[in-house]
Design a protein that fits this description.
This protein is of the alpha/beta class and about 550 residues long. About 40% of the residues lie in helices and about 20% in strands.
């Protein structure tokens, strides 16, 4: 198919000034860029008054978990995303064996509220995608959680030398198959029980293959520097690999004070010669599985029984307090820490329940959008809040996703976003169950940047914002022929109306497609037009060139 885009205003992804030109696409490649182009037998797109940019690249996304169920991936195509990086936070659809499948059944599926169709390895995943077809390109990362579970299941014991060697072989096999790096989620099991030394040994393989070590760090709160960033920097240094911080932010009451400090730590590491980059999500709230915040790993092994038996329920409540205290009160004012612990135990869940909103859940969809406290009072009126909470977690099979405002745009997000090595991401995950709500990030992260951060707030220019969505993530991933509108590059292109582009999703109803995007082209084929997916499945599992 040949496509001729006429009269568009080109924002080419490099950060250079916009200009007016035509673009001729032949097959899957940008054949020519210039004025007054013509071509017989080409489909014509009149882009007069519209912005033409490279397709957006989402460098941190979990849609690989359900891509085989949702191959059209409309939520991302219709917001202009033509490529995403998957296998993030140590979770991914491959590799898998029986131990990994048990781990996902018991733990990961509950944490993520999805049931992925796991594949043996990246090759088998790629084959399934090729046979089925998808609408988007995927740059896949080897998830360290899967790699460890292949060897150790959900065991929390340290890996021995032979187990580490086999894990290295798994990482190398997947890097050789075209993976772009390895991801970790060091707050989730089994990443949370993996030592720094174990991760360094795996990251050495990533470095040898010129991949990226991409990490949801071990701490993003009051110890973000001492525990989170210092570990990542050590891994990058000792493994001799490029590193990337996923959804970089300070989740702390001291955000204003800490944000300049983490920038300095980052840039000191870069000055040392380390290649470290980051992405940030573009909403002020955190979205996370409630079970992750509340429960230790052992709870998931006999989930329903543990949340029913009075003895284990007591143990769970005791451990929940310790987790919540360390997560939310570690940097609390001194007067709060002076409150006796027995009283804090009674107060902490009711207080949090009045601040945390249920974004989605698999069974009782009518509680979506409600505060946890209100849902507990409605469904379990005769029980105290703590006991009612355990009942809710049992009855929803652990699959509750919550939202909680944790960031401040002006002081905690924009200072990071403006750094030249930081790109934007969605951190989204698409759920199959149509009754489950989704966060608006799944449908509008990239239009939101243009609408809010460029057009309404003027934090950055359009050219800079587009660069952070296109050539910068392409450079980090080393995608050598995407992310820029340039002759010879792949034809992943978005045509949009700058004055009208906007997100539509809300926390109450996240499943709303954005406005203002006219056309989305993936690998040279028009995949969406004027808010309608055309049913095209022209995406690919990309392979990193070595």
């Amino acid at each position: 198919m040949n496509i001729l885009i006429k009269n568009g205003t080109i924002v080419d992804g490099t950060g250079a000034d916009r200009y007016e030109s035509d673009i001729l696409i032949k097959n899957d490649v940008i054949k020519k860029i210039g004025k007054d182009l013509s071509e017989e037998n080409a489909e014509l797109i009149d882009a007069a008054g519209k912005i033409v940019s490279p397709g957006f690249i989402d460098i941190h996304n979990h849609a690989d978990m359900t891509i085989l169920d949702l191959p059209r991936i409309e939520a991302y195509i219709l917001q202009g995303v033509t490529t995403f990086a998957g296998g993030m936070c140590g979770f991914g659809i491959a590799p898998a064996n029986e131990q990994v499948k048990i781990y996902y059944s018991n733990i990961a599926s509950r944490l993520l509220s999805v049931n992925p169709k796991l594949c043996d390895d990246l090759e088998s995943f790629s084959k399934k995608v090729k046979d089925k077809g998808i609408s988007i390109n995927i740059a896949y990362f080897v998830p360290q959680g899967n790699v460890r579970a292949l060897e150790l299941g959900a065991s929390e014991k340290p890996a021995d030398e032979e187990e580490i060697k086999r894990m290295q072989e798994t990482v190398r096999k997947h890097m050789d198959a075209g993976a772009f790096g390895m991801s970790t989620g060091l707050v989730y099991p089994p990443g949370s029980v993996s030592s720094t030394e174990e991760i360094i040994e795996l990251a050495k393989v990533v470095g040898e293959c010129d991949g990226v070590y991409m990490s949801h760090m071990r701490n993003e709160g009051s110890e973000i520097i001492e525990v989170g960033m210092n570990e990542l920097i050590r891994i990058a240094r000792e493994a001799k690999c490029r590193a990337h911080i996923s959804h970089w932010s300070v989740i702390s009451s001291t955000t204003e004070e800490m944000t300049p400090k983490i920038i300095k730590v980052m840039e000191d590491a870069q000055a040392e010669g380390l290649d470290i980059t980051a992405d940030i999500t573009v909403y002020e709230d955190a979205v996370t599985p409630l079970a992750f915040i509340m429960f230790n790993t052992w709870v998931f092994e006999n989930y329903e029984k543990n949340l029913t038996d009075p003895k284990t329920r007591k143990q769970i409540l005791d451990e929940m307090f310790q987790k919540l205290f360390s997560m939310f009160l570690a940097d609390a004012p001194r007067f709060i820490k002076l409150i006796p612990k027995f009283l804090l135990k009674k107060l902490i869940i009711p207080v949090l329940a009045k601040k945390v909103t249920i974004l989605s859940c698999p069974n009782n969809s009518d509680i979506q959008g409600k505060l946890i406290y209100d849902a507990l009072k409605e469904y379990y009126p005769d029980k105290n809040i703590r006991e009612a909470f355990l009942d809710l977690m049992r009855d929803e099979e652990g699959g509750i996703i919550i939202t909680l405002k944790t960031k401040k745009e002006e002081i905690g997000m924009i200072p990071l976003y403006k750094r030249p090595y930081v790109c934007s991401s969605s951190d989204g995950i698409l759920v199959v169950n149509p009754k489950q709500n989704e966060h608006p990030r799944n449908y509008g992260s990239f239009p939101r940047v243009i609408q809010r951060w460029v057009r309404e707030k003027g934090y950055v220019s359009l050219e800079t914002a587009i660069k952070k969505m296109t050539s910068l993530p392409a450079e980090i991933l080393k995608l050598q022929d995407r992310g820029i509108l340039k002759e010879g590059f792949k034809a992943d292109i978005v045509v949009f109306n700058y004055d009208e582009i906007k997100e539509k999703g809300t926390l109450e109803n996240g499943r709303q497609f954005p406005e203002g995007i006219d056309h989305v082209i993936v690998n040279g084929v028009i995949t969406a037009s004027y808010g309608n997916h055309l049913g095209v499945l022209n995406g690919q599992v990309l392979r990193k060139k070595r």
